[in-house]
Design brief:
single chain; alpha/beta; four-stranded parallel β-sheet; 10 strands; about 15% strand; SBP_2_dom; repressor
């Protein structure tokens, strides 16, 4: 097995795809794929290509194993609505990536159904690939608002880490004065981010599902739909203790 880190850079991804071609790899599993010049050509080469946790950026019907990003966004919105939290802001990195786009779409669609105009939900974003830095710098947008959101939904946990740090440095108490939600349920959260509410798929589900999907493809019984793994919430004590608003 060869293991590579693309750093979400298209040129590096293509470099490694060429390397896999030269090694006659039986399959390539891509976690967090980005659009790149070689990606579509590589898929058409006949080599098994399986996308994990972020659907293919250039083809809707590619093999995929991971979270249902749209439904996860819907479920975050449902949980916020159940707790009467409607003053919401969104921090995101690039929306060129399928996971972020679907998470945001699910969140906004459900809030819109509940009567919250998506145009009334402020967004904060700065360019960059480092989610810690993007979250940190983006948080300033909300800190500068006359009435800042009291719920900060970050489209990844790493964005939330940066945003929380910036709120602390501004002299706020992020635990008492706001609620942070993230995506991915990073295994480090219970250790370093007890304040963060997050939704994700338990990490130990990915390996068996990936291997099972590869075997199905090789035995000419490929999945005809995305293989969605069940996601779950990890909620902090403060959010669990908050009362549900009357409907």
């Amino acid at each position: 097995m060869s293991l590579c880190d693309t750093h979400e850079e298209a040129t590096i991804q293509d470099e490694y795809l060429r390397e896999m071609q030269s090694q006659l790899a039986r399959a390539v599993v891509i976690i967090g794929a980005v659009q790149s010049a070689l990606l579509t050509d590589y898929r058409n080469s006949g080599t098994t290509l399986l996308f994990i946790n972020r659907p293919a950026p250039d083809q809707e019907h590619s093999y995929y194993v991971g979270i249902n990003n749209y439904q996860a966004g819907v479920d975050v919105a449902n949980l916020l609505l159940q707790h009467g939290k409607k003053n919401i802001g969104i921090i995101h990195a690039s929306l060129n990536f399928t996971a972020a786009v679907e998470r945001r779409r699910g969140l906004l669609d459900r809030l819109s159904e509940a009567g919250i105009d998506p145009n009334d939900i402020p967004h904060a974003h700065v360019a960059g690939l480092n989610h810690l830095e993007v979250g940190y710098e983006s948080m300033q947008t909300f800190l500068d608002m006359p009435k800042r959101p009291d719920v900060i939904v970050c489209l990844s946990d790493m964005l939330a880490y940066g945003a929380y740090r910036r709120a602390q440095e501004a002299g706020l108490d992020p635990i008492k004065q706001m609620t942070f939600f993230g995506f991915d349920d990073n295994p480090l959260n219970p250790w370093i981010a007890h304040w963060l509410n997050s939704v994700g798929v338990p990490a130990n589900l990915y390996g068996p599902a990936t291997v099972a999907t590869l075997k199905s493809i090789w035995h000419h019984l490929p999945p005809t739909a995305p293989v969605y793994l069940p996601h779950q919430f990890r909620l902090n004590k403060e959010f669990n203790a908050s009362s549900t608003a009357p409907s």
